[in-house]
Each structure stands twice: as C-alpha cells, then as structure tokens.
Amino acid sequence: MIRKKTSSLFCATAVAALLTSATLPPLAAEAQDTYQRPPAALAQLVDAPAAPAVSLSPDGATMLLMMRPGLATIAEVAAEELRLAGSRINPATYGPSRSPGYEGLQFLDVNSGRQTNVVGIPGDGTIRSVSWSPDGDHIAFTVQHETGIRLYRAARATGEATRVGEFELNATLGSAFRWLPNSDGFVAKVRLSHTRSAADIAGRSVPKGPIVQETAGEEAPARTYQDLLRSPVDEALFDHFFTAELHVVDLEGTASRLAAASVYPSFSVAPGGKYVLVEELEKPYSYLVPARRFGKTITIREIDGTVAHTVATLPPAENIPTGFGSVAKGVRSAQWRADHDASLFWTEAADGGDSKREASIRDNVFALEAPFTDAPRQVAALPTRFSGMTWIDDERAIVYEYWRATRERRLSLFNPSDPTGLRTVMEIATENRYADPGRIVTTATGRGGSVAQLHDGGNALLL
Predict the structure, then answer these.
(1) Using an 8 Å Cβ cutoff, are 249 and 188 in contact?
(2) Backbone phi, then psi, for 205, in 5-degree steps?
(3) I want to staple 38 with a disulfide (CB 3.0 to 4.6 A). Which of 42, 65, 273, 303 is the partner?
(4) C-alpha to C-alpha distance for 125 and 101, rounded to whole angstroms
(5) How does residue 215 score in pLDDT terms, banded at 50, 70 and 90?
(6) CB–CB of 62/108 below 8 Å?
(7) Cα distance between residue 235 and residue 238, in whole Å
(8) In terms of C-beta density within 10 A (0-12 exposed, 13-18 middle, 19 or more buried), how is residue 30 classed?
(9) Measuring CA to CA, how many Å separate 82 from each of 1, 23, 95, 242, 321?
(10) What is the pLDDT of residue 218?
(11) What predicted TM-score, i.e. pTM, was given to this entire model?
(12) Rounded to an integer, what distance in angstroms lies between the CA atom of residue 411 and that of residue 374?
C-alpha cells in the first residue's frame, strides 16, 4: 500500500511538473503572438500584383487597365460575414464579402500608347463593378469603404474621377447600378438609412413559435444549397440588408425614385431609355432554395416609376424536376432586344421544365413590344433549352440552344418579325475544342447593347 501511495504521489507530482513546464513557455510567448513578416524577397514575391484586367471601350479606341492587387489582406479575410439566402455579404458595407476588386485604373490609347491614370479615387477603398458608358466617354465604378459602397464616374478624356451623389449603394444582390442608354446617368440601387445593426435585429427578434414546414403530398426532390434562410431571424436580417430603393440618377448625382423599398435582384433599362425591366422578390421567402429562386414579380416600369405592364408573377422555384436541363415553369431569361427601343423577349418551358420527359419542343421564345398592350407572340420553338440570343436586324437573329445530355450547342437563324421556323447554322460538340469554330463577333449599338458584326455585304458572320 505504501508503494502504491508513493507511486500515486510521484505520478501526481510528475504530472504537475509536466503541466507547469508545458504551460509556462506558451504564456511567455503569447505576448509576442502577432503576424510576422517573411524575408523581404519572399514578401515581394507573394505581394506582387497580378496582371491587370482589361476592357475595351465601345469604339475600341481605348483600353481600360484595372490593376489587381496581390493576396487579400488579413483585414479583408477577418471581416464579418453574414450568410443569407445563398449570398454571403459584409454587413458593414451592404455588399458582397471577400469579393476581389481593383486598386487602380488607367486608360491606354490603343493607337498612340498614351496612358492616363484615373485620379481622384479615395485611396482607402476597393474598386469594383467597372463599366463603360454606352457612348464610351466615361466609365462608372463603385468604391467600397469600411462602412459603405459609393458610385463614381471618370471621364476618358481627362481621367478625373468624381463621386456621383451623396448616397450609398446596396450591392448585396445583383448589380448595384446600370448606365442609362443615353449615357446621361444611371439607374442605381440605393441603400436605405438604417439605425439598427445586425446584432440588434438578431437580439430583438424573439421567435413567436416553432419553425413549421408542411408538405403538399407531392414528390419534390430538390438540390442541397448552402447558406439558406433558417428562421424568422434570418428573414429579418435578409429584409434589413437586401432591401433597397431604385433611383434614376444623373451624372451630377441628382436622383429621383423609380421604385419604392423592396428586394430587387435584377433590373435593366430598355435601349430606348423609356422603360425599365424590374424583378422584385415576393414573400413568403423560401427556406428550401436561395434568393435567386424565391417567388418574384417581373414588371415593366416607365422611367418615372409608373408600372406599364406586369410580365409575370412567379412562385418560389422549389420543385424543379431533377436532372440537368430541367428548369422552372413560367417566364425565364426575360431581356430587352438589343436592336429595338423597347421590345422584350423571354422563354418558357414547353415540356413542363422536366428534361426527362419526352418532348419534340423543349422551350418556346416569346416577344412583346411597347406599349405592351398586345398579347405576347411566339417567335421560336426550340428542340432543346434556350441559352441566349444574338440580334442582327429586323429579319434575322441567332438563337442559341444547349442540351446537357448530349453536350451539344446549336445555333439557329430565324426571322423574329415573321417566324417561319429555324434554320440550323451550327451544331457544336462543346467538349470537342478543336472543332469549335468560335463565338460570334458583336459590335456595340451605342445604347448599351450589341448586335452581330456582319461581313461580306451583310451575308456572313465573323467568328
């Protein structure tokens, strides 16, 4: 027994000694726990800026160089992040979290090689969302600071940048601004003035009961998505950070409201500048799909905000059939026609959206012209899924199709004014790169869109 007690005493003493010896050095080192700099040569290698991104002006005369930094800073990586309805945002800025940007801009004259730095950009911000004006005289971009996102413009002739207005933008979902087709201003998603923080909302949102989800007795297999809404608190946070107003803003920053506070995932201005296509999310929000699949209403508004036409009201896309190539029912891919003042086109599934169902026609393409009082007219019937459009003129357009099961892309010519069927121009195996003839070359219209660039007297396309 004495041996056992002595042994136990020895073990306890030894453990205490080990703990003391193991604990003391880290305590002494904690005071020095900071990020350390590597040797200068290695730091220069790691911090070396990446090659700049480039963008040509609509007339092709000027190249915009967008300077990309090296690695993200510790402050950027450590910034607070909220994950709501499939989006990851920075609650301090009302914009995307950990999104790459630029640290400088420069105009380069293509013919002479003359370089003009864009000056007047605050040095403590990150540049994002750079776009040319339709006439090519200006660029517009956002600058993200620690507490918000602001809109700037810069003249190509001088490189001088100025802030547009005194408002902050909301860039949590979709584009924060778009140029007007006449290059005289923008439609912008303006952030609301809030006095409550995310912590305040989460702390005050006391659940009134359990979270209940009901089934309708129908089989509805669904994909698994990240960062979905999970509770009324998440819904309150989503409303707080994603709600914004749409404003029409001139180059000097004078603004007029186009649409009241709501969640707007998408908006686009018609080439004629008189109408705006607006998507607005509808409640109740879904806990099964991300925001891009929430229920929504698609409207056409006049530039003063008056609703000219309701294109569609769509439920949440929660029960899309499984399988690649399956899509939601109803209006999809609503867009303005690039070569008309105000002509809208979209596609709708003709097979119920189910790629596994046998069908000779998968998608129908419809068109509707201003003043949007007539019934939509069908302009094309597609054997596979719609994937895009290139406009040529009143009598010619190229429609793109893609079918995942065969990895095949098809380009067909049709007459949008008097559709009499499709004429296949190309069938391309997407996984056979050696046989890919290339993409159709387009030219800017000067109103924010582009059409096919023709060759040989208008009888051939350039690829």
Answers:
(1) yes
(2) -85, 85
(3) 42
(4) 10
(5) low
(6) yes
(7) 5
(8) exposed
(9) 61, 36, 10, 12, 30
(10) 66
(11) 0.87
(12) 29
What does the H/E/C string look like for 86-115?
CEEEECCCCEECCCCCECEEEEEECCCCCE
Q: Using the 8-state DSSP alphabet, how is residue 245 labeled? A: E
pLDDT > 70? residue 305: yes
CA angle 120, 126, 132 (to 5 degrees): 65
CA 189, CA 264: separation in Å to the nearest integer? 8
- Cα separation, 312 vs 297, in Å, equals 6
pLDDT score at 35:
83
Q: Is 386 helix (H, G, I), strand (E, B) or coil?
A: strand
List 257's β-bridge partners, or say none: 247
Query: Which residue matches tokens 């599934």?
Result: 349
Q: What pLDDT score does 51 carry?
A: 92
Mean pLDDT of 386-396: 94
* Among candidate residues 338, 334, 342, the one with its CA nearest the CA of residue 445: 338
Give mean pLDDT, residues 425-454.
92
The values of phi and psi at residue 251, to 5°, are -65, -20
What was the pLDDT predicted at 237? 94
> Are 263 and 281 a contacting pair, CB within 8 Å?
yes
Burial class (CB in 10 A: 0-12, 13-18, 19+), 2: exposed
E strand map for 376-422: 377-382, 385-393, 396-403, 408-414
Residues 205-224: what's their mean pLDDT? 68
Burial state string for 362-397 with b = 16 or more CB within 10 A and e = fewer than 16: bbbbbbbbbebeeebeebbbbebbbbebbbbeeebb
The answer to whether 249 touches 183, Cβ cutoff 8 Å, is no
pLDDT digits (tens, 9 = 90+) for 231-243: 999 999 999 999 9
Q: What is the mean pLDDT of residues 122-143?
A: 95
Looking at residue 269, its amino acid is V
Distance CA 431, CA 416 (A): 30
Place of tokens 């195996």: 429
Q: Is the dihedral of CA 201, 202, 203, 208 positive or negative?
A: positive
Reduced to 3 states (helix: H, G, I; strand: E, B; else coil), residue 5 is: helix
| Range from 43-52, 146-155, 257-266, 279-288 carrying the lowest mean pLDDT | 43-52
Q: Which amino acid is at 379?
A: V
What is the DSSP-derived secondary structure letter of residue 25?
H
Q: What's the rounded Cα separation, in Å, for the pair 455 and 457?
A: 6
Q: What average pLDDT does the chain have?
A: 89
The DSSP letter of residue 394 is T
Q: Strands 62-67, 104-109: parallel, antiparallel or unpaired by DSSP?
A: antiparallel
pLDDT at res. 220: 62
Residue position matching structure tokens 């939601």: 328
DSSP states along 273-295: SSEEEEEEE-SSPPSSS-GGGS-
